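Field log, afternoon session.

UNIT: design team B
ACTIVITY: writing a sequence onto a fixed backbone
BACKBONE:
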């Protein structure tokens, strides 16, 4: 039984048994038999000795054993807890040992001093910081600081004392100055006093000096004045102002001393007004004013870090130390975070600033990210996820018929070079790379294309298979070596006989000439020689010539020759002996002479052995006789085919069809693709082997194809591993950094900055640090060599200034500054006083100016009036910063006025009123009403005319009713007893109602813009009009009929919204619609217009970027990288990782297919609100289904445009969902670098998109996607499947890949060709092939193809190009033609309807900044009304008006 605790339990076992010992009661001991005993040995083990026949008390022992085991388990648990506590304590001890003991600093006059720091607040005082307490004492070693000695007494510096009643002395810097007291002037003296005193005189007698009168003032001395008053002469010294300087003197002829100009300080003379640093304490700035030196600590700039520290030799506390991941770094130091080799950090003013190491674009197309390297390099090639060595040839994994070559980081692929074909229509079968000619069929035998063979039934014919056809012809016969050869089996070339005169003769035969009986022919080796018959000499004297004979004969014939086995041979007859045809005999008069026949020469290599001579009419090969034309397999080499022809055997290799793989193995005769032959070595299919020339590469043979890649290595735990010689994988036993190899612990100059930085190798990781800089003795140093602070110039707000240079202070500070020895001294610029009440300070200026009123068409001075450009019959005025605009109210002043089409009011033909003539430009009051004004003007024809109107009053915004002052009889308008409300920044966009209910005021551009309300025309008679108290416009008293809107009856008075800019109401049975007017929005080049939810008019935000998820699914990130991840769970698509403004989640579904997925739903989280975008364009908000459009001010607005759901959020966030699998998220540039999730980090670098929630780069797209998995959303009926690395095309096979390539070629067709230059189609083509392999065949494949095509079309539309690519059978979208709709690939997002048809097209497009989407629209000239396309003339009666006021943003008020 295994117990916890290990060896620790050995002593515990003895302890447990010892604790169990008392459990043996007396009864139990008695129960033991006499043969048993219980004893304890030295180790504490219970040893039981029993005899063979003694029974054991099993029950008692088992109970004891169970108790012991239980106690052991409890003790083991206690030991485990102690181990865990011990580990925790050890960790804490290590942390404490690494801590630095910091003692509390001291604060003195607003400045912080570190422990042990010394400073001198003045020339005679020295202070020190001890344990957070400031202790100051006088300086003892300076003479003038020791005080003074006078009359045997010691006095401190600055002390005033009186040695006697008449003397006052002062100790200053070791010197004593004394002065006598002044006394009243009396003629008598009292020797007991220092001053003369007077005795009382008889009453009435006043004694004054001679020639002085009572009350007269005289000057006995230049600086003493005396007066005789009440019998007493009172004298006093001239009153002098108290001097604040240490050194003074009295100029000649003056009574009062003055300060000596300039200052003496620390042994140096300084001019009056000079500002200089203290030489004894550089942290003090001193000023010489009226001979007195005042020194104060220098003003330190605010520290950007939370805990600045003071350093010796530095005046101001600085952010000396940065803390990151528990490690401290000095100010200005640069380093690489551990485990993040591609990140560099620096300590800037106490704040660690980290960023990605910028990588230059590699000079190759397929760079490789080597382990430990920050940037990809071109030493090898990474192609389709595999790494290939430089110079390596390999087969394209996705295109088996392409051969690729890695050359300096760039992969060049070309189709496999196929052998030329000889046929007109070569064929390429499944799985074949090269076309080949078809095989041939002859006499039920199959022959390979190009094969030569004898005819199966006629060996004398040679045949060849070409392009499926067999071409046969007689074989060429060799020339015979004789003149009359005998015919052989195929050729006439046998010279062992003769063919002459149509007859065949054996070799050596004599025969008569066929036409000349007297000539005898002889056959020798196929040649015939015919000679005239030679007549032998006759022994008889009188021969005779028989009739028909050629030679004369003797009367008696010669004797015949007798030959055994044959008839006798006649005289001169040739014959062959029986059984010996190789000899030829001649009978001459009974005697026979024989000789062997000669054999003709044979030029064949394998002749047959004939009866007498070799014959080429066949072949003798390997002991076999073969007829001419026979083809057979060589017994010497089974891969050779031999042919017997005219006695010679020729052998050649068998014809082999071209191999369909680049590295075929050697078959029995022909190369086959069931193995590989690579660099002279043979390998089995599926076998892995080291690459012969590169031992660190592993190759794999699969069906004649060889692919090689680097041997996989475990990822080292260090950031800069080193690959040792003779090893394939990197190790942490050294460092390799920017081409430098370093041993563990070795320190070396930073190769990127050898002058200012150094690096150290520690356990395979290189950490580079900046060399420490000397402290700066100024407050605003500039970067010097190695970025160390330098006091030669000054740095402020990111700008550098030369020493002595004067410049403007920071923006908005309104200060004038100058640079002196690295310190910046600033003084505020004084502003002149203004006579006006309303003042404005322009952006970028320091002083205010008097302001009038700001309107969209410019600024207007106080008290001015003008006519708005877009409302010629309106008038605006500026009064105390408030613009009041209203329509002109006309007044008739003549009996027969007339009004033209462009006139605002009726006009009178002359300028005469009640007999008085007025000149052009003059105005007058026609009656007693001071609000009526008439003006004489000149008509375009040059004649005077008069028009009268009612004056409108300025709006009194913010005036309470109790402060309203009614106008007097001479004035028209009321006034306010207090100041009116100011339109401030905090009120921007707010609306207020002034005392006059007919005006609505809005705060715009720091000006109240008050517009007179437009009262609609009523449908009831004027007698039924009435105006409620506190309202402006009249209404009808009688009930008004209802209105019809979209097939529903709407009661009178009801309001509803058509879109963001158009609202309608039912008034007296008439639909009245009003559209809001937006001023033209012009955004900077780095901005784009954005609509807030419920707003009509756009505003500018930093230019956005979009992330697109489509297909199976593929994610195109904000930074443009295309990722493939097929997890079927819920994931974070993107979110604000800094402030948590929003979060967007996606839930994927595999649709029943293993290893793939599609987006099923989207969840948008905005604060506490959750919006779910579901399949088929259903939408829920906080769990409740909603109908579109839906508004939740000011958070979000959801609408349906075409077949796309659009969500607008107040953050500038926009989400598009097509209801199936495609979702697009658009964010403004203000979120750059703040996002995380599957859409990436939006930092402009696509290389670092694979960052998980921890911020670390993950090795694969599957690992990256799975890291962003979140708990499942509702509606999933089964457990989800995490993503994995899959290749659906490999699983589907080559035929599926080929079909996918063919269908996806639509992306590169003419329908998209205009978009190829701005949006490369290659990433979408790869995604398309991937999806079609995963979707299979049928309708699902069609849907997958359309998903990718629509995603690419979306990117094209965003780039400003609208491709025309759909067809009747390709992703067609149906529109209700019976209702007049047509399909538009880029339909208007804001269609024209009966309720906005009065809005100009340009303005409708201006405020409709949504993206165009494919959908159904009405043709040009028609408007949409209740889901039909009708002509504008067919629209129901609707009163359409435009809101005259230009507003930067309007809001929806209600929604039904």
């Amino acid at each position: 039984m295994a117990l916890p605790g290990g060896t620790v339990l050995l002593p515990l076992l003895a302890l447990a048994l010892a604790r169990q010992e008392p459990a043996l009661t007396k009864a139990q001991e008695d129960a033991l038999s006499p043969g048993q005993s219980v004893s304890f040995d030295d180790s504490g083990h219970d040893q039981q000795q029993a005899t063979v026949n003694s029974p054991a008390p099993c029950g008692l022992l088992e109970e004891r054993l169970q108790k012991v085991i239980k106690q052991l388990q409890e003790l083991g648990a206690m030991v485990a807890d102690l181990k865990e506590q011990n580990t925790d304590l050890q960790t804490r001890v290590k942390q404490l040992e690494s801590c630095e003991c910091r003692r509390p600093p001291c604060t003195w006059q607003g400045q912080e001093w570190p422990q042990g720091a010394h400073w001198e607040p003045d020339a005679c005082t020295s202070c020190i910081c001890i344990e957070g307490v400031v202790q100051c004492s006088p300086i003892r070693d300076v003479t003038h600081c020791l005080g003074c000695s006078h009359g045997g007494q010691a006095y401190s510096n600055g002390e005033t004392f009186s040695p006697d009643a008449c003397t006052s002395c002062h100790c200053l810097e070791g010197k004593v100055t004394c002065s006598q007291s002044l006394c009243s002037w009396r003629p008598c003296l009292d020797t007991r006093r220092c001053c003369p005193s007077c005795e009382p005189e008889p009453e009435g007698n006043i004694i004054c000096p001679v020639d002085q009168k009572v009350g007269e003032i005289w000057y006995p001395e230049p600086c003493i004045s005396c007066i005789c008053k009440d019998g007493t002469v009172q004298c006093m010294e001239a009153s002098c102002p108290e001097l604040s300087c240490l050194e003074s003197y009295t100029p000649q002829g003056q009574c009062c001393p003055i300060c000596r100009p300039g200052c003496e300080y620390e042994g140096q003379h300084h001019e009056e007004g000079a500002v200089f640093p203290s030489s004894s304490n550089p942290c003090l700035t001193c000023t010489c004013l009226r001979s007195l030196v005042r020194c104060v600590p220098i003003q330190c700039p605010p520290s950007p870090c939370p805990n600045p520290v003071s350093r010796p030799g530095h005046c101001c506390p600085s952010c000396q130390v940065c803390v990151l991941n528990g490690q401290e770094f000095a100010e200005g130091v640069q380093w690489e975070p551990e485990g993040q080799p591609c990140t560099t950090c620096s300590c800037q003013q106490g704040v660690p600033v980290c960023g990605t190491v910028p990588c230059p674009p590699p000079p190759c197309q397929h760079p490789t990210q080597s382990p430990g390297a920050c940037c990809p390099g071109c030493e090898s090639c990474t192609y389709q996820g595999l790494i290939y060595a430089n110079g390596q040839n390999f087969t394209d994994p996705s295109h088996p018929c392409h051969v690729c070559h890695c050359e300096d980081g760039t992969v060049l692929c070309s189709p496999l070079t196929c052998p030329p074909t000889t046929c007109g229509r070569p064929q390429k079968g499944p799985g074949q790379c090269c076309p080949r000619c078809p095989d041939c069929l002859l006499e039920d035998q199959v022959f390979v294309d190009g094969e030569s063979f004898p005819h199966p039934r006629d060996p004398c014919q040679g045949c060849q298979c070409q392009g499926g056809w067999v071409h046969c012809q007689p074989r060429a016969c060799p020339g015979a070596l004789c003149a009359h050869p005998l015919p052989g089996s195929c050729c006439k070339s046998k010279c062992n006989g003769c063919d002459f005169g149509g007859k065949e003769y054996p070799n050596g035969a004599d025969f008569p000439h066929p036409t000349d009986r007297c000539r005898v022919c002889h056959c020798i080796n196929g040649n015939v020689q015919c000679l005239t018959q030679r007549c032998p000499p006759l022994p008889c004297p009188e021969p005779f010539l028989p009739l028909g004979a050629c030679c004369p004969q003797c009367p008696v014939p010669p004797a015949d020759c007798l030959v055994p086995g044959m008839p006798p041979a006649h005289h001169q007859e040739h014959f062959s002996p029986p059984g010996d045809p190789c000899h030829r005999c001649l009978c001459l008069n009974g005697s026979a002479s024989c000789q062997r026949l000669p054999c003709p020469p044979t030029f064949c290599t394998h002749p047959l052995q004939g009866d007498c001579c070799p014959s080429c009419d066949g072949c003798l090969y390997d002991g076999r006789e073969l007829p001419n034309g026979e083809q057979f397999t060589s017994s010497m080499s089974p891969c050779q085919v031999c042919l017997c022809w005219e006695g010679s055997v020729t052998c050649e290799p068998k014809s082999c069809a071209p191999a369909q793989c680049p590295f075929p193995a050697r078959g029995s005769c022909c190369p086959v693709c069931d193995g590989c032959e690579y660099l002279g070595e043979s390998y089995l299919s599926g076998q892995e082997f080291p690459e012969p020339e590169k031992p660190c590469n592993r190759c794999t043979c699969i069906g004649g194809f060889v692919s090689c890649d680097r041997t996989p290595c475990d990822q080292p735990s260090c950031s800069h591993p080193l690959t040792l010689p003779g090893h394939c994988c990197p190790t942490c036993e050294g460092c390799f950094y920017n081409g430098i190899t370093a041993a563990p612990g070795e320190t070396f100059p930073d190769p990127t900055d050898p002058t200012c930085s150094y690096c150290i190798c520690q356990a395979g990781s290189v950490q580079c640090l900046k060399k420490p800089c000397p402290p700066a003795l100024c407050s605003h140093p500039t970067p010097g060599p190695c970025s160390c602070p330098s006091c030669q110039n000054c740095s402020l707000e990111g700008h550098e200034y030369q020493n002595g240079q004067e410049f403007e202070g920071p923006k908005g500070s309104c200060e004038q500054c100058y640079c002196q020895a690295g310190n910046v001294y600033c003084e505020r610029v004084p502003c002149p006083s203004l006579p006006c009440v309303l003042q404005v300070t322009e952006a970028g200026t320091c002083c205010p100016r008097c302001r009038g009123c700001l309107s969209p068409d410019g600024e207007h001075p106080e008290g001015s009036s003008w006519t708005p450009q877009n409302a010629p019959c309106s008038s605006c005025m500026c009064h105390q910063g408030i613009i009041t605009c209203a329509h002109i109210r006309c007044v008739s002043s003549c009996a027969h006025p007339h009004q033209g089409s462009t006139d605002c009011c009726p006009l009178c033909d002359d300028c005469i009123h009640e007999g008085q003539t007025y000149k052009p430009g003059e105005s007058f009051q026609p009656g007693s009403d001071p609000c009526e004004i008439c003006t004489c003007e000149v008509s375009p024809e040059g004649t005077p005319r008069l028009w009268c109107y009612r004056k409108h009053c300025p709006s009194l915004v913010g005036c309470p009713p109790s402060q309203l002052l009614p106008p007097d009889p001479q004035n028209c308008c009321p006034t306010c007893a207090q100041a009116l409300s100011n339109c401030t920044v905090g009120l921007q966009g707010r609306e207020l109602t002034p005392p006059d209910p007919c005006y609505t005021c809005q705060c715009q551009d720091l000006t109240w813009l008050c517009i007179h309300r437009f009262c609609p025309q009523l449908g009831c008679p004027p007698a039924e009009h009435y105006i409620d108290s506190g309202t402006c416009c009249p209404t009808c008293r009688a009930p008004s009929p209802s209105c019809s809107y979209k097939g529903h009856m709407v009661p009178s008075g009801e309001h509803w919204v058509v879109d963001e800019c158009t609202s309608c109401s039912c008034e007296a049975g008439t639909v009245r619609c009003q559209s809001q007017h937006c001023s033209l929005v012009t955004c900077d080049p780095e901005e784009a217009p954005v609509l807030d939810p419920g707003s009509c008019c756009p505003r500018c935000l930093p230019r956005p970027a979009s992330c697109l998820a489509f297909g199976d699914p593929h994610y195109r990130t904000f930074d443009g990288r295309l990722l493939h991840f097929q997890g079927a769970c819920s994931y974070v698509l993107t979110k604000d990782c800094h402030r948590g403004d929003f979060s967007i989640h996606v839930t994927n579904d595999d649709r029943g297919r293993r290893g793939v997925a599609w987006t099923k739903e989207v969840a948008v989280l905005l604060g506490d609100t959750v919006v779910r975008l579901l399949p088929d364009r259903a939408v829920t908000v906080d769990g409740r289904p909603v109908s579109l459009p839906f508004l939740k001010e000011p958070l979000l607005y959801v609408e349906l445009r075409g077949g796309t759901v659009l969500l607008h959020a107040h953050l500038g966030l926009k989400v598009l969902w097509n209801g199936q699998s495609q979702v697009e998220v658009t964010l403004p540039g203000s979120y750059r670098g703040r996002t995380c999730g599957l859409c990436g980090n939006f930092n402009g670098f696509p290389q670092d998109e694979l960052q998980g929630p921890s911020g670390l780069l993950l090795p694969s797209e599957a690992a990256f996607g799975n890291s962003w998995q979140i708990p499942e959303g509702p509606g999933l009926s089964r457990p989800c499947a995490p993503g994995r690395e899959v290749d659906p095309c490999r699983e589907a096979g080559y035929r599926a890949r080929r079909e996918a390539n063919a269908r996806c070629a639509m992306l590169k067709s003419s329908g998209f060709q205009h978009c190829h230059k701005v949006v490369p189609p290659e990433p979408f083509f790869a995604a398309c092939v991937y999806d079609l392999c995963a979707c299979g065949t049928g309708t699902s494949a069609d849907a997958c193809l359309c998903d990718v095509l629509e995603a690419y079309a979306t990117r094209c539309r965003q780039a400003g190009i609208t491709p025309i690519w759909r067809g009747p059978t390709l992703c067609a979208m149906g529109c209700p033609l019976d209702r007049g709709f047509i399909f538009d690939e880029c339909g208007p997002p804001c269609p024209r309807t009966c309720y906005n048809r009065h809005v100009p097209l340009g303005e409708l497009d201006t405020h409709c900044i949504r993206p165009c989407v494919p959908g159904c629209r009405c043709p040009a000239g028609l408007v949409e009304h209740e889901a039909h396309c009708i002509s504008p003339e067919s629209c129901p009666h609707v009163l359409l008006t435009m809101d005259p006021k230009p507003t930067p943003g309007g809001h929806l008020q209600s929604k039904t």
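LOG NOTE: The longest strand covers residues 694-702.
NEXT ACTIVITY: expression trials, pending approval
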